[in-house]
Deoxyuridine 5'-triphosphate nucleotidohydrolase (Paenibacillus gyeongsangnamensis), 151 residues
Amino acid sequence: MSNHFDVQIKRLPGNEDIPLPQKMSELASGFDLYAAVEELLVLAPGDRALVPTGFAIAMPGELEAQIRPRSGLAFKHGITSLNSPGTIDADYRGEVKVLLINHGKEPFTVNRKERIAQMVFQLVPDIRLTEVKELDATVRGAGGFGHTGTR
Ligand SMILES: O=c1ccn([C@H]2C[C@H](O)[C@@H](COP(=O)(O)OP(=O)(O)OP(=O)(O)O)O2)c(=O)[nH]1
Ligand SMILES: [Mg+2]
């Protein structure tokens, strides 16, 4: 690939055994993230937890990283990321964490080194907001929230 970005990643102390985020196939868009829980964490139905990943990153200013659920965990166990997609700001230097929630009917055990979510990098355009008194007119206007149909 011609265009690439260098992103620095730092393992946090005590996480030498945790694999770094990994693409599981050549063209995967996400890097899978591994749980850096002490040993295991049990999520009862309806419970949520901030799951550590054991690393921090520094990316170029034109990027952000999104934390997205793994569809397999969502489909098989009802496990997803509550704030999906989670936002990792380019200037964030703390540990990347995954806010998991159990929407399933059974308790779910997160084991150390288990893949719990994925991290997708995105370009963030440099947007400058300009305040105006009037916006330009469009056919849609203020219609929304299903106004084009009955559902
Ligand atoms: O799933 C997530 C979401 C956020 N963060 C970290 C990185 C991000 O840069 C920071 C702030 O996230 P966000 O802006 O979503 O949270 P906030 O509630 O607005 O907090 P803040 O006031 O710190 O921005 O928290 C994570 O590690 N995982
Ligand atoms: Mg914020």
